[in-house]
Amino acid sequence: MIIKDIRIRDFKSLYGETYFNFMDLDGLIKLSGPIGAGKTSLAEAILYGLYGVVKGQNNTSLVAWNTQECEVEMNIVSKNKEVHIKRNIREPLIVEINGKTLSASSKRNTQEILEEEIFDVPKLAVTRMCIISFNAFSKSLANMNPADTKQFLDDIFGFRLFTDYNNEIVIERKNQVNESTKLNAIYTETENQIARLKEKKEQQEREIKLSIDTKALDSEREGYVNEGKELKTKRNELEDEQDEKINVVNKEIREIERKITEASTLGKQEKSYYNTFKSGICPTCGSKIDASHIEKHRLEMMKYAELVNNYNDEKAKLKEKIEQIEEEYEPKINELNLKMKDLANKINKIDSDIKIFENNLRVVNSNYDDLIKEQEEKLKTVKEKIDKNDIEIGEWNEMNELFTKTLRYNLLNTLIPHINKSIQYYIQKLDQPYKVEYDQEFKCHIYVDTYGKEISYSNLSTGQKKTLDIAIIFGIFQNIISNVDFNVIFLDELFSNMDADSRNTMLSLIKENFEEDKSVFIMNHAEMNDDFFKHKIRVSLVSKKINVKKLGDIVVNASKYEQIF
Question: pTM, whole model, 2 decimals?
Answer without folding.
Answer: 0.56
